[in-house]
């Protein structure tokens, strides 16, 4: 899309201008994980060889389990969800400072998390902030903690999956008050993308869809995450 004529006169940043960081529960080095993709036949070895130095540099910016967004703060050695949010937002601010970045963009690519109930605190920002400060209390899902940390850090935010995140009204209100840019909550790369494209076509052709079914193999930990109400 950005290579089309509509974007010719827009001063978009070059790929080399981006500095990548992240957080992951896995402690396997990024280069090693790329090599497993080679072993699986998904990438050619020469591609990994060409970017191995950059992958290694990115790996140095990957935060481990002690700086994870997890619904149960005790699993990350914290007393409150607010403490986890502070850790994440401080890590984001440190990343920006170390690399003298102009803009920080947070993209949540964690496994899709279950939807949440319509609770009073999810509609009241002040009540929400009060409750996440209470010891050992599970209030927000993990994706909500990441979103709140991004808001605190003044970062643009996008959720790659249909996890709750800024779909929670109180969080969206805080994001609006902070004036951050945000998008989401579904990048639509698979079945959702196809259905989004096909559905209008069926309507335009006056075709009535009697049923619509799909299969999700729930790989990569998605199934386990959706089955766990307090998922990481």
From TrEMBL:
Q: Residue ranges of the Myo-inositol-1-phosphate synthase GAPDH-like domain?
A: 190-229
**What is this protein's name?**
Myo-inositol-1-phosphate synthase GAPDH-like domain-containing protein
The UniProt family comment states: Belongs to the myo-inositol 1-phosphate synthase family.
Q: Which Pfam families match?
A: Inos-1-P_synth, NAD_binding_5
Its source organism is Mycobacterium stomatepiae
Q: Which Gene Ontology terms cover its molecular function?
A: inositol-3-phosphate synthase activity
- InterPro entries per the UniProt record, alphabetical: Myo-inos-1-P_Synthase (IPR002587), Myo-inos-1-P_Synthase_GAPDH (IPR013021), NAD(P)-bd_dom_sf (IPR036291)
Name the domain of life this protein comes from: Bacteria
Q: Name one GO biological process term.
A: phospholipid biosynthetic process
